[in-house]
Specification:
The complex is a heterodimer of chains A (170) and B (103). Chain A is mainly alpha-helical and 170 residues long. Helix content of chain A is 71%, strand content 0%. The interface between A and B is large, with 91 and 75 residues.
């Protein structure tokens, strides 16, 4: 066991535990705070995978914007989300069975794939993924079109969110 | 070195936890949080496959993950606006009580 592997196991256990708390805890504000913990663990995985930009974007976008937005919405709709009522469907047992079955199926399919135990990385020839990512996102022969489409999508979502949440006097 | 299989199993477990949350939770915001977990599991998979399989050929895996980030941000913004709007009109955000379209 190398130190890197121990780090992976610790972070994976913390992330999965936090994710379990997100889907099981009664108080929604606590669930959102556990979501922050899980997202932070995933940011650490991005660092382990040599994707520094994604790690920073994870912290800024997911933790800084999305999680905070969710906490705001939970607080705005707090009165109906009382913790005394059950927070899960009556037939949550089926959901649990489907999730466990899907995990077993995924694990089985993945373990029968020949590349499952790939140890070596293909990164040797590539020294600076961050620079490559920045160039690829604006190069005309690479990904500039999806990049611009993503900006249009974000603008549409921005306007749509404002229109939907606008308080009309009916 | 960490083998690719560890990342894949971790992402599969995270995805299934998110799936359980989507299917079992009542509150719409809790469902949205579980969807975020699922999207993050997908992103881990994309970046892990890029790092172990195709990192020498280009940066496609990371670009894919960046686009998923943008779509997730748009989804959360519109989703939360919808929930606030529904809350204002119907005074509930429990997913099983939002049944205006059911007949």
């Amino acid at each position: 066991m190398t130190p890197l592997q121990i780090l992976f196991i610790v972070v994976a256990a913390a992330t999965l535990g936090a994710a379990l708390m997100v889907v099981s805890v009664r108080n929604l504000v606590h669930a959102a705070l556990w979501l922050v913990v899980a997202l932070m663990g995933i940011a650490i995985f991005y660092v382990l995978l040599n994707a520094g930009f994604l790690a920073v974007a994870q912290v800024v976008i997911y933790i800084g914007a999305i999680a905070i937005l969710m906490i705001f919405t939970i607080m705005l709709t707090r009165r109906v989300a009382s913790e005394s009522k059950p927070q899960v469907n009556p037939n949550w047992g089926w959901a649990l069975a489907i999730a466990v079955l899907l995990f077993a199926g995924l694990a089985w399919i993945l373990s029968s794939w020949s590349g499952f135990n790939t140890q070596t990385t293909a990164l040797a020839a590539r020294a600076d993924p961050l620079r490559d990512l920045g160039l690829a996102l604006v190069a005309p022969d690479a990904y500039v079109l999806p990049f611009e489409l993503a900006s249009v999508l974000l603008l549409a979502a921005l306007i749509g969110a404002i229109v939907v949440a606008w308080e009309k006097k009916i | 070195m960490i083998p690719l299989s560890w990342y894949l199993i971790f992402a599969a477990a995270l995805f299934c936890i998110g799936l359980f949350g989507v299917l079992a939770r009542k509150n719409a915001i809790a469902i949205l949080m579980a969807v975020e977990l699922m999207l993050n599991a997908i992103n881990i998979n994309l970046v892990a496959f890029w790092y172990y399989r195709t990192a020498a050929d280009g940066i496609a895996g990371q670009v894919f993950a960046v686009i998923v980030f943008a779509v997730a941000a748009a989804e959360v913004a519109v989703g939360l606006a919808l929930f606030i709007s529904i809350y204002r009109r119907r005074n509930t955000i429990a997913a099983d009580e939002i049944d205006l379209l059911k007949w």
